[in-house]
Amino acid sequence: MSGTGGRGGGGPVQPGPVDCDDLVFSTTLNSPKVSVISKLKAKDILRLTLAGSRGPVVAVTSEGETAGSITEPRLVDLIRCMSEGHKYIALVLSIDAGACRVQVRPEAGS
Amino acid sequence: MQRVCNPSVTVPDCFELPDPGDLVTDGVRWGRVDQLFTPAYWAAQAWFSRGQCDCSNYRIGATLTEEVAACLLGGHGIPAEVALAAFFRIRDLGLLCGDVPSTEEIRSVLRQPLDVRGKSILYRFARQKSEYLGEFLRCATSVCTKAMTDLQLRGWLLSFRGIGLKTASWITRNWLASDSVAIIDIHIYRAGIIAGFFSPHQKVPKDYLTLEERFLGFAQALSLRASLLDAIIWQHMRAAGRMALAWAC
Asked: Which of B4, B33, B35, B179 has the most A C-beta neighbours within 10 Å, making it the best mutation to test the interface with A?
């Protein structure tokens, strides 16, 4: 039995291998905690932590409150990279009607 | 309910999934959408892929013969890039159209180093695969497969040496964009163990058809095309690499 033989020419867009140092994407926090999000503003920095080996990846404020989690096509790459010891932050881009847009990127110096 | 929003757009574009503890199919719970490889995760990833999917075309080859060659040269732990490089070499030398080449001719071509991402790689199993491909090319040309259904095509492919249920299903899925078969390889198998729609007691190839039935039922429970679910699972499991091995144990 093998899973390395490839699959086919079509299907969903297949992103190439991801370098953990280059893993940067914008996303909207999933399951946002309204009471926490309401205190955030653009340019705030959230720490991303891996709550279990398969996730979730949660975004935590400097006060230690969970703002939400990441649900994203690149979640598998993010968790793989975090499992390998890479650290990431989520920079708040905007807060709009309870939705928190963030940019996920490697923590400087990690 | 679990609310999932499209992360790539700034305007709200959301849908809802049942609670993590709810059943998606017999004995299988939805799980958290933000946790890797739960049924809810697969449902969300399929939803994210809307508009980015050429879901009617999985073909590698331009003819069925080419598709068989492409799939036959893969499997057995051969990396996808190496299998494809071998297929392109064979195809571009004209061995898959016109006069049927001898097994020795195919073997000689497969034994030449391949350029894969700038590295010179030797194709493993050149002897065995050249025999299988040679036999197929000699026997297959006189058979008309155009009127065959998915399962008839798979059944016909199974009559060739070197083509088992997984390879026959892979060819059938690619060639016909079939949702009636499943390619139970190591990635799909591990995904099934992690999500819970396979039991660790079920093994490939012994329980292939039972596992296939479970996979097709799981796709139906998620209201997804089996071919799309297969493609998404395969990509994500491959990206997870060794992590998935530990989770499936």
From this structure: B35
